[in-house]
Please model this.
Amino acid sequence: MRIAPSMACLIVATILASVAGAAEQTPRTNVILIMADDIGYECFGCYGSRQYSTPNIDAMAAEGMRFTHCYSQPLCTPSRVKLMTGLSNARNYSAFSVLNKSQKTIGDYFGDAGFRTAVAGKWQLYGAEHYKPRFRGKGTLPGEAGFENFCLWQVDRLGERYKAPLLQIDGKNRQFDKSHYGPEVACDYLIDFMKRSKDEPFLVYYPMILVHNPFVPTPDSQSANKKQKQRNFEDMVAYMDKLVGRIVTTTEELGIAERTLILFVGDNGTNKKITSQLNGREIQGGKGLMTDAGTRVALVALQPGTVPAGRVCEDLVDFSDMLPTTLQAAGAPVPDGLDGRSFWPQLQGQTGTPREWIYCYYCSRPERTKPSRFVRDQRWKLYGDGRFYDVANDVLEKSPIQQVEAGRAAAVAKQKLAAALQSMPSEGQSLLQFDR
Model:
């Protein structure tokens, strides 16, 4: 039987409309990006620790994917600027506590793509009132960074972060009494946002207040002794894990777990006053250092039905990769010109296009410090000043490899890393340069 052309066109149009309708009804993937403050990879059970209690993050790793080679900047503001913009600090970092106003952030990109956006926890990107006049107000407010909802410590004022916190909520500063715990308030805010937004695609950015010093007791601590810094830090790690568990549980209770990608990461190494045991080795916190103790952090991903369970990935991940990865996962456009590379294929169990190296440019206070920089892969590390290490066998970087000692593997690696180092900017903003 022949079908008239007009009828054939009608059938095709009906099929196409049906396919388009189905696509429109397919829920978009939500993204929850959680970043703990001042905690290295050595503080998690899923990375081998027996000292700290992290059952919820360990469960995320067991039910999802754990990365062994994720690298941050050595300090909080540099890491935040890199993560939020997908760019190396050499391109857009201007000062501690400042995110230049011209920078387009993860909040902007998701908002432009039609997502609801919320951020809660620690901001420290505006230049609050306690900084010197040349820094105050030179950065970016959360609303200017694409976040329509926010509950944050240290926006324009400092105040306490733990007991009786001072938080800015949706543009208004609010002083809480001693019955309130800052990290809990921020977590409650995000859970309320998720409940209100469960039928819409959303981005939750959760730069946690925990586990940054001061090392003080948590609401779950058995002792109220503020002088037990190591013990209090361990309690703070446990409470941080508890809050992460609340976020994960909320996605399950709302029935959105399978369409929500959750990434958990640390922003830099642990405080230098903290000592941890890992696989029979003592690790002193390395916050502010360019070594593994300052830059190697945990990264765990969870999305039931999408991220393969129990998978360990040894691919390199740089903090600039978080932006393109989350955008691709959400089906949002990924802009050109980023330094980051998406590892979304790896999160789906595919090979992807793994990095061959990462680049770290670090100059925390450009007005008075000189930059340090390195490129590295999983084993080898080359600094801008020529120091070259086999980090896999010299994690403390005590014995730089001399040219006369280098075997063929080392020579080949150094040549590769030298070319990579030359391909990236060697100097960022050496003088204070703020957007007006």
In short: The first helix runs from residue 5 to 25. The longest strand covers residues 311-318. The CA atoms of residues 46 and 174 lie 37 Å apart.
